[in-house]
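Dear Dr. H.,

I hope your travels went smoothly. While you were away I took the liberty of generating a structure for the chain from your last submission, since the lab meeting agenda had it listed for discussion. I wanted you to have the full record in hand beforehand rather than looking at slides cold. The sequence, exactly as received, is reproduced here:
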Amino acid sequence: MGYSKKVIVTGGAGFIGSALVRHLIRDTDATVVMVDKLTYAGNLESLKEISDSPRYSFVHADICDTAKMSEFFNEFHPDAIFHLAAESHVDRSIDGPGEFIRTNVVGTASLLQAACEYWKGLEEDEKAAFRFQHISTDEVYGTLGEEGYFTETTPYSPHSPYSASKAASDHLVRAWHDTYGLPDLITNCSNNYGPNHFPEKLIPLVILNALDGKPLPVYGAGANVRDWLHVEDHVAALRLVNEKGAVGETYNVGGHNERTNLEVVRTICSTLDELRPRKEGKYEDLIGFVQDRPGHDLRYAIDPTKLQTQLGWKAKYTFDEGIRETVKWYLQNDWWWRPIREKKYSGERLGGAK
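The corresponding predicted structure, in token form, is as follows:
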């Protein structure tokens, strides 16, 4: 299958991380060590289908522990690091920004320090082949008006503690490349969706609240626009960047699937009406408008032209196809999400602080 690197995936029990690990084990010959602290959003059940593979293993560790990370790198001897470990929910960053600074900023600096020391000790050919790949977000760019797109040269203008912490981590990765020569790659992606998504985020929250007959909360007037990217399209891009991306470059990953939040909720409702009708009324009857999130960016949209033209990436999923598949997955896999709803997060409002 062509790709046979020894790789570390940090945050591999999270939504995007677990999709990347599954992709690497399923579709490549890579050997993968997944590193995760297993915070509330980390779920080893997301890796159930590949957990028996001899090419997969798990290390329970905190990326802020530089000494442990250094020891681990020297022991495993990786060819590449995919750094996805991060606190990622804007609403939670509003309620408690400290953990976002610790994991996303301090944790990234710690990991860079350990990776750089490891990289310096490699043979010259191994040094040239090594990659530190940092996975980030379009939220670092701030907000757009009704027109235009984020590109790799868009100035940073983060507006939430989450996006500010990711912007800081992006800058740290670039600094380690420019100062120490660490071979880095950075990707900034639009909003992901798909299976195994922790149900605090919009799409799984709406699906599961609808199934429970609970209100479907839409912030403000539901006019905020996001560019949706299926997680399988995203992880295929991450592997492609790791294989073919130019050191020191940034690549934006977007699906060209812009929808207002209200359109997203209505699409989910109509899909559920078809696949699992309510006994009374339609799912759209559950929609309710709530006070907007503080500092809520109006619109995100990514221009993935660089990734498409230079590396040959192309998204496979349209939004309607992806949403339908995602709704079906949640309908068929309550073994995965029901324990989360019962024990970790039941759908309550987060991030209402002013």
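Two observations you may find useful: The first strand starts at residue 6 and ends at 10. The chain is about 40% helix and 15% strand.

With kind regards,
E. W.
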